[in-house]
C-alpha cells in the first residue's frame, strides 16, 4: 500500500512540474492592411531583448488579423516585437534614418525614445494558465 501511495505522489509531482512549463501564449496581431506576412519574436529578459529570441513565429494576415501561438512557455515575463513583411524580404525594412518603413509593434504598445523601447516597457506576464495578447501594428514611415 505504501508503494502505491509513493507512486501516486511521484506521478502528481511529475505532472505538476510539467504543468508549470506548459503555459501557452496566444497572440492576435492586427493591422490596417488586409493581407501580408507577420513575423513575431518573443524575448524573456532585458539582456536578450531584440538580440536573442526565446521563440519566433510567423503567419499570414487574413482580413487584417493574424493569430499566432507560442505553446509550452515557462510562466514569467516576456516581450514581443512584430512587423509586417510588406515586400517579402523577411526583414524589417528601415528608411535612411533607421526608422522602420514597414508596419511594426511591440507588446503593450511600447514606444521608444530615439530607438526601440526597453524590455521593461514592453514586458507582460504569462501565467501558468496561459495568456492571450493583442497587438496592433503601426503604419511605419516612408
Automatic annotation (TrEMBL):
<keyword id="KW-0732">Signal</keyword>
<dbReference type="Pfam" id="PF09912">
    <property type="entry name" value="DUF2141"/>
</dbReference>
<dbReference type="InterPro" id="IPR018673">
    <property type="entry name" value="DUF2141"/>
</dbReference>
<protein>
    <submittedName>
        <fullName>DUF2141 domain-containing protein</fullName>
    </submittedName>
</protein>
<feature type="signal peptide">
    <location>
        <begin position="1"/>
        <end position="22"/>
    </location>
</feature>
Amino acid at each position: 500500500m505504501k508503494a502505491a501511495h509513493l507512486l501516486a505522489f511521484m506521478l502528481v509531482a511529475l505532472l505538476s512540474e510539467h504543468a508549470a512549463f506548459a503555459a501557452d501564449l496566444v497572440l492576435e496581431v492586427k493591422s490596417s492592411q488586409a493581407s501580408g506576412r507577420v513575423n513575431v519574436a518573443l524575448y524573456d529578459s532585458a539582456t536578450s531583448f531584440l538580440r536573442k529570441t526565446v521563440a519566433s513565429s510567423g503567419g499570414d494576415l487574413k482580413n487584417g488579423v493574424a493569430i499566432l501561438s507560442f505553446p509550452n512557455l515557462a510562466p514569467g515575463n516576456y516581450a514581443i516585437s512584430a512587423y509586417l513583411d510588406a515586400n517579402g524580404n523577411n526583414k524589417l525594412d528601415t528608411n535612411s534614418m533607421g526608422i522602420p518603413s514597414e508596419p511594426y509593434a511591440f507588446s503593450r504598445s511600447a514606444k521608444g525614445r530615439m530607438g526601440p523601447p526597453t524590455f521593461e516597457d514592453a514586458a507582460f506576464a504569462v501565467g501558468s494558465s496561459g495568456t492571450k495578447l493583442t497587438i496592433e501594428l503601426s503604419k511605419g514611415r516612408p
